[in-house]
Design brief:
Largest sheet: 2 strands, antiparallel
Oligomer: single chain
Structural class: mainly alpha
Shape: elongated
Radius of gyration: 22 Å
Strand order of the largest sheet: 1-2
Distance between the termini: 35 Å
Order of helices and strands: HHHHHHHHHEEEEH
Strand content: under 5%
DNA sequence: AACACGGTCAACCGCCGGAGC
DNA sequence: AGCTCCGGCGGTTGACCGTGT
């Protein structure tokens, strides 16, 4: 904000006072796209210097990754993507870039924004902390199964299979020593709206599952706990009354439940 | 019409770790 | 070993826009 000019971590080149900040212009975008097409998307400081853009390398990198990259996907987060975000966040927490690797074309920034503006809003509405076990369980036990139902309701059988493979879950965090190898290749030079390709969660880790596979039918008829889905009645609020108690108060008022139904 | 408010999202920041010298 | 540079990450900010009063 205020003291942009002198960052003690940065070398104090005399051009520092000349560095541009703020929104990018179309002209800057065009210059950056041109340079990246020639030099590749690495060596950002070199690109920033030699392109004549009065931007930092970091700023160039961010602009490219979040906006100019040809395979960046725009538009609303789909139900399937919502499911993936909830699922992967339950595994990894705020590892946005890692989560983004499994949502082709989506950026870590976009997922982070989605989480903060949509998911945290739900927590706020329920007056519980987004990082609380209560909220996490609510996501797993209520919202994710609901999402699957909605995905099924709107989908072809092929997509149902996709969803089923999505929730075939190792139940374990990814081995940090095992670099992520998303099962898709970037779709360069195809402007968005390519067929969405999800990476089955079963492929997330080479060190696979200790827990039983979770199938779509499991989800439809049950709730997830730490070790798998448990059967639960599907008919209504009354069935949920063991899930959302804070200090003896059941957070699942009719109002909040239907509010959430509308949101997801 | 003007203002307040809340949601969204692009772009920034500081921090950290790896590479190279 | 220690330093510098750079890229990547997660957290935060603020401009913008739509909606309500």
């Amino acid at each position: 904000m205020e003291d942009y000019e002198r960052n003690s971590n940065s070398p104090s080149h005399e051009e520092d006072s000349d560095v541009r900040k703020g929104p990018w212009t179309e002209e800057e975008d065009a210059i950056l796209v041109n340079f990246v097409s020639i030099h590749g998307d690495a060596r950002w400081n070199h690109i920033a210097r030699s392109s004549g853009l009065r931007r930092t390398g970091k700023s160039c990198r961010l602009r490219w990754l979040n906006y100019l990259r040809p395979d960046v996907r725009r538009g609303n987060i789909t139900l399937e993507e919502q499911f993936m975000i909830l699922k992967l966040h339950s595994l990894w927490g705020n590892r946005w870039s890692k989560i983004a690797q499994y949502l082709p074309g989506r950026t870590d920034n976009e997922i982070k924004n989605y989480w903060r503006t949509r998911v945290q809003k739900q927590a706020k509405h329920l007056r519980c902390d987004v990082n609380s076990n209560l909220f996490k369980e609510t996501m797993r036990n209520v919202w994710m199964p609901r999402l699957v139902e909605r995905i099924n309701a709107q989908s072809s059988s092929a997509t149902c299979e996709q969803v089923e493979s999505m929730i075939t879950d190792p139940g374990q965090p990814i081995d940090e020593s095992n670099p992520v190898e998303p099962g898709f290749a970037p779709h360069h030079h195809h402007h968005q709206q390519q067929q969405q390709q999800f990476v089955p969660v079963s492929e997330l880790s080479a060190t696979s599952s200790n827990s039983p596979a979770e199938t779509l039918s499991d989800v439809q008829g049950g709730v997830v706990n730490g070790s798998g889905y448990e059967p639960v009645g599907q008919t209504g609020l009354g069935e949920f009354n063991d899930w959302g108690c804070v200090g003896g108060d059941n957070m699942w008022t009719d109002e909040s439940f239907w509010f959430l139904q509308d949101q997801f």
